[in-house]
Amino acid sequence: MVRSGNLSVDSSASHRRTPSRTVTLGHIQPQAPSYRTVYCNDRDSNMPVRFKGNSISTTKYNVFTFLPKGLFEQFRRIANIYFLGISCLSMTPISPVSPITNVAPLSMVLLVSLIKEAFEDWKRFQNDMSINNSTVEILQDQQWVPIPWRKLQVGDIVKIKKDAFFPADILFLSSTNPDGICYVETANLDGETNLKIRKALERTWDYLVPEKASEFRGEIQCEQPNNSLYTFTGNLVVQKQTLPLSPDQLLLRGCSLRNTEYIVGAVVFTGHETKVMMNAMNAPSKRSTLEKKLDKLIITIFCVLITISIVTDREDLYLGLKKSDWEYRNRLAIGFFTFFTLITLFSSIIPISLYVSIEMIKFIQSTQFINRDLNMYHAETNTPASARTSNLNEELGQVEYIFSDKTGTLTRNLMEFFKCSIGGISYGCGVTEIERGIAQRNGLKVHEEERSTGAIREKGFNFDDPRLMRGAWRNEPNPDLCKELFRCLAICHTVLPEGDESPEKIVYQAASPDEAALVTAAKNFGFFFYRRTPTMVYVRESHVEKMGKVQDVAYEILNVLEFNSTRKRQSVVCRYPDGRLVLYCKGADNVIFERLADGMDDVRKVTREHLEHFGSSGLRTLCLAYRDLDPETYNSWNEKFIQAKSALRDPCNLINNDMKQFIISSESDTIREAEERGDQVEIARVIKEEVKKELRKSLEEAQLYMHTVAGPKLALVIDGKCLMYALDPSLRVTLLSLSLNCTSVVCCRVSPLQKAQVTSLVRKGAKKITLSIGDGANDVSMIQAAHVGIGISGMEGMQAVMASDFAIAQFRFLTDLLLVHGRWSYLRICKVVMYFFYKNLTFTLTQFWFTFRTGFSGQRFYDDWFQSLYNVFFTALPVIVLGLFEKDVSASLSKRYPELYREGIRNSFFKWRVVAAWATSAVYQSLVCYLFVTTSSFGAINSSGKIFGLWDVSTLVFTCLVIAVNVRILLMSNSITRWHYITVGGSILAWLVFAFVYCGITTPRDRNENVYFVIYVLMSTFYFYFALLLVPIVSLLGDFIFQGVERWFFPYDYQIVQEIHRHESDASKADHLEIENELTPQEARSYAISQLPRELSKHTGFAFDSPGYESFFASQLGVYAPQKAWDVARRASMRSRPTVPKKK
Fold first, then answer.
1. What is the pLDDT of residues 566-605, one digit of tens each?
2. Helix (H, G, I), strand (E, B) or coil at 130
3. Which is catalytic among the residues 156, 190, 405, 1066?
4. Is 405 a catalytic residue?
């Protein structure tokens, strides 16, 4: 047996399962629990088995489950259960209010929420339908017939054309390539764009044309559907001949065909039984952490409701009961019913429109702000950001731990030849993004050299140094080494050229992006690889003999020693046209360095310094070397090589020393420990003990660093095999403790299940908000296990995107998604929740104060329609505008000061301290509105000389309350737009218009005649206008003073940033315009409406000089801000306006 990647004469040997199996010559018997038998090209024989169809569904609901499951989702919210109970109570005789007061708002809340759920699930359904209706050609009556994917059945013979996706898991039968191979791109599965080779059984190569394929009547005996992406066991029985099958013959659904005109295969697994769908979990119903905390707040409010109902359940005080009275003897029953009367009366303390408003705000945030943000639009792939759910917007602003896939996600899996070192001399003038970022953090300015005239830039090649380009390498101190480097790049690889044999039109198909980049670099240095046969490589060389001369050279490839994780290098033995034998090798630095020839110490030292510099700049590094071979040495080695292949030993280590090293360019080393002694049980025990010892040792060391003042940042690196034992219940706590003490944790070569297990470990063990981001099907479990799942869309596959909550085109867009939209969403939702709590508590407390005057009888203070429309009409729109446009600092400042994001992690805006502050404000304002009006109205009379009655007083209190609560929005907003003024003024005007209409008409039923003409009577008095001016101002005065003291002495981080930049204009609009100007005219038109609101941010509040600057950014920026107490009054009355430079 040989390791994957080495040469092998038995392709099935490496896939045989260990112990407990029955083996016959050329036949592997599938094992328990059972296996399936598939009859190829014979639908009638497969009919009795009833295999699953090929249609897939990723929706949360269907026609039958939508209503029950949707209602269940809605009633998971404690508030909705509460409203349901209140609605039932309001239908009983003990209710002091009309049933419509509670039933109508609850029905509207449920209807709007269900419509939103249906809309989001409809989008998932449309996506499923577009996939299910894709077409594929199957064999029918000796011809290829196109059918939708959903009609595909197990056993069908299918034809897949170049660049098409595989509609199911398919057994590979034949290919247009002469050697029965095809090239597969697995980006949908693992995000890797490098090609994988699949090889059909030689027995089935002939079944390529429909006439021949129709003769195929094979029988597939294979394992049952499972989620293992990299294993497959089975047999193919053809004409009484049994052939063993391996993963090399299985083409997985979601992968795509590359570099092959078409292939023919037989369907093995379909639909939800395919391996990629077996890895997909059912879409979990995620609720944000803030929503769960909101449930706790509502429970607290409900306890307050119970308390005030008990306090006011004192019927003996207003009935004057005696022991002889019937009511006294039944006071417990009367008290019981009175309690529920008061519960219904005070039910408005919990806002019924809260969830609808939040759902609406989140939906608009997702569709209009996140989806249309040009900062997260990827022009190359025409891919905008996509919020696939709006339930988790604010969760983006509280993420503490990020779990990221590496290949294709954290790295784009696109390699460029950037720098090199040849014979101890470094070449390449560019500056990497990491070098630029380090310089910016250190306050240094990067001076980038201008690109030389005629510098070449193409995919895979971003190198600029006139010393090597256009044959200039001939003038370098080591031209022979340069020449050998370029030949090594052009010869030592397994790349396939495609297309015209010209440098401009040729396309390289490589097994990895590294190989493609290196071959592209050789082409641009003048060594153009343009043709390959099984034994020859053809290179068009320029400037070798003399400047300007071009010659085609054919190199005979004698041996290829392929790269694998054990050798960590790839080697090629080639023969020049003049008979020269050369070994070219490329691999990891430690592997190459230890095989260098003697006398290379000086070059080795200088090259290692270059290597470390390249690595610290964020470049992947690779070492290249060569050795001349004499014929006798080669012939001796070749005999051993052939024997080693036959004996299934590793033949590649027989040539190892005396190499000359000349370049560094890619690939770093990862230390892995392999246990290869003893039986399986002993190996498991030893590995577990080693993992246990290392975890405890590392944890003790990490805890020592934690107690030091300036300890280093720690990182944990663990591979998949060790992680399997570290996740054991006995070691899980140790692993979690060590991980939480580290700045970063790197898990190497882990399975999809292990990714999800690590994510769940931190989510449940640390109880912190987690985010997972990935781009392949192997990331789906991890994405669904985290609080927030991000899928990378674009050139890679869509499996991760379909399972995600948000989709972005590149990892770098995570900055805008979290630091900008996440922060803003968290801030907005927190303020919306606090405001709802405040305005409903204020409204309910005025009713509560009134019960003391009515002897706790349960008498209403407000008209039913006043109470019903208070939340849904008179105070609804301003809070929605607050939730949409609130912005503490601009997008550019949010990214400039990433420390601001910690406010979300600390949950600074939803602490019980904040709740207590808002509750105190509500108590104060309710007392002011109630006492000022009721006390002063004792002596108030209308124009006819009558004193004010109950409905006059309650209508005046309600009017003052509506004004104060709406104006409070302006006081709490950091960013005020014209929509704030429109909605605040419109809400107050809407109440007055409603009062004019409602108090001016009468109806025969369902009508409280007491409020008839009340507003007209009130407005005929000077007292009404005086109260409207005085009461709201006094009620808001407490908030005004509190905000001033808080901003002056106990400022939030964002308030300090506001002070630092209070004279600067909002740059967010400029950022959008700048990016838009980089788009094509068509893209600019398409996204013209996608800009965020055009209003400039006006930082309101009190622009006080804060003495607490030193605790934040001011000390870093050298800002001196002395306290100016005498300026408080003057500046408190001013609004900080951005200074916009005048146009010249």
1. 667 888 999 999 889 999 998 888 788 888 887 777 888 8
2. helix
3. 405
4. yes
